[in-house]
């Protein structure tokens, strides 16, 4: 019984840290959730999905075992999370542990597992554009990310940070190297 209380308390601490609007620059003092129960001899990642469902929406990223994130909401057995990059999505609540500070975790700022397929790369790239307000035109993009709250019809107009632009450039280079369809 006490374990459950601590788990709920930990989740509340994570939620309070996010609700307080703490900057990611202060990650050493915040408490984060992280993936648990992954199979190190299997896939060893937690799927970040565009919707709170294993069948609706799409996988937009793969989170490694040391990826830190903040819980921003819950719906049924799903947790809406935000990564330090600002990317948001849904993960199965079954695989969410809480709480860990960035300095006590195995890695201070753990990155998601690198995408290994053209689909993974496409979704990772489009997730960056979605988080910045891009309006998708293709049925696949609209189905995966929707256009709620979108503001920009042209990728060149989307206000990405320098880091996000570098990520998009790296993803596109990997897509070219793998021969992914444009």
TrEMBL record:
Alphabetical keyword list: Signal
Keyword hit for Signal: yes
Span of domain YARHG: 97-176
Protein name: YARHG domain-containing protein
UniProt cross-references to Pfam families, sorted A to Z: SH3_3 (PF08239), YARHG (PF13308)
InterPro entries for the chain: SH3-like_bac-type, YARHG_dom
Record's signal peptide: 1-25
The organism of origin for this protein: Methylobacterium persicinum
